[in-house]
Amino acid sequence: MATTAPEKPQFRTAPTAHRALQDHYESNPEWHPDHPHEWDVSRSDIYFEDRWQPIFADMRAKGPMHYIPESPFGPYWAVVQHKAIQHIEALPELFSSSWEHGGITILDRLDDEKLAEMGRERFELPMFIAMDRPKHTGQRRTVAPAFTPSAMKGMEDSIRQRTGELLDTLPRGEVFDWVDTVSIELTTGMLALLFGFPWEDRRLLTFWSDWAGDTELALVRDLDEQRQGILREMAMYFQMLWMERTNQDPAPDLISMMIHSEAMNQMDPQEFMGNLVLLIVGGNDTTRNTMSGIIHGLDKFPEQRKLFEERPDLIPNAVQECIRMQTPLAHMRRTASEDTELFGEQVKKGDKLVLWYLSANRDEEVFDNPDKLQIDRDNARRHLAFGYGIHRCVGARLAELQLRILLEEMHERRLRVHVAGDVERVRANFVHGFRKLEVEVTEF
C-alpha cells in the first residue's frame, strides 16, 4: 500500500454528487427533466421514491422491449425482459458497447455541432467495458488476474479480518447509518487495497465514485462541469501514483498491472480516467449498495432473516438472491451497429438499446414471486446484475466474496440489524442503491 499521499485535492470540501443534485432540485423547484412518455424509466424519481417495480412489470407484460421516442437522454429502446437482455449481450458485434457509439449508459453522445451550439467541449471517458473486441479483450485481460479464484483465496483472510473488526465496533443501543459506517467503509477499504491507494485518503474513492456514476448530473450544465473538474483531479491524483510506481518492480495492485501491460501502459489521459472510473464505480458502488440492500431486504422480509439465522448453510445462495433483489446497477446500454429485426421490432443502425437489469431480475418468466426475497431460491444465480457475455463484471467474484464474508461474520456474532430510522435512496437511473440506512443492532 502506498504510504505517502499526493497533494490534497481542491474538491475535498465539495458536496457529494447526490447532495449537489438534491440542492439543485430544492433551489430550482421549477426545474425538472421532461419525461413525456409514461414508460420512460430514465426518470430518477421512480428509483429515489422506490416505485419503479409496477412500471417495469407493466412493460414486461406487454413485451420484451419498447421504443421510447423522447426522453431527456434522447430516444431509446427499453429492453425489459431477461431473455431479451441475454440475447442482446450475446451479440457484441451487432450491439456495440463502444464509447465511440455512446458507451454503456443511457447518456447521449452529442455530435460536434450540438456541442458547439451548447458552448461545451467534448468530454468522453473510454474504458474497457465501453470498448468492443479486440481492444476490450487486451485491457480486460490486464486487470483480470486481480480477480481470479486464486487471488480471491489470497484475499479472503484479510477481508474477513477487516470485516470482523468493523462489526465488533458497531454501537449497541443506538441508531447509526449502516451505509456510511459499514457499506462504504468495507468497500472503500477493499478498493484502496486493490489500487495500493493511500489509506488516509481512501474516502476520496467514494467521493469520486459518486460523481462518476450519476448520469443525471449531465443534464445540469454547472454540475456537469463540476463533475468533469472532479474527475480530472481524480486522474491527476492517480497519475502521481502511476509516476511513483513506474520504475518499481511489478506488484499485484491494479495500477502496477496497468503500468506493466502492453494493452494499457500507453493509454491517453481520457482513457486512463475512464478505466479508473470503471474500476472505482464497479468496485465501490455495486458491492456497497448490495451490502445495504441485504440489511434492508432482511428487515423487510423478517421470515427470511429468521431463515438466515437458522440456516447459515444458505449464505452463498443468499448472496446471489440479495444481488438479484438489489441489482446495484440499474442498466447498461448497447448501440445497434446495423439495421436488424429484434423480437419483432425493427431496430435501426445507431439506435440506443438500454438493458434494464433491474427489470430482468424481476422477470416473472424466470423468477417465481420475483418481488419477494427468498434466500433459498433455487435459481437465484440466474440474475443479470453482473451482466452477461464478454462484458460480464470482471470483479464479480470479489463482490460475492465480500458479501459472503459479511453475512458469515454477522452470523458468527449473531448480529440482527433492524432498520430504525431514515431510508434514503440514490436519485439516479444508473447506480441503484442507498445514501442512508439508519439501523440499530441487536443479537439473535
Automatic annotation (TrEMBL):
Q: Does the keyword Kinase apply?
A: no
Q: Identify a single GO molecular function assigned to this protein.
A: monooxygenase activity
InterPro entries, sorted: Cyt_P450, Cyt_P450_B, Cyt_P450_CS, Cyt_P450_sf
Q: Which UniProt keywords apply?
A: Heme, Iron, Metal-binding, Monooxygenase, Oxidoreductase
Q: Transcription: is it a keyword of this entry? A: no
Which SUPFAM superfamilies does this one have?
Cytochrome P450 (SSF48264)
Lineage: superkingdom: Bacteria
Question: Family assignment?
Answer: Belongs to the cytochrome P450 family.
Q: What is this protein called?
A: Cytochrome P450
- Can you name the source organism? Qipengyuania marisflavi
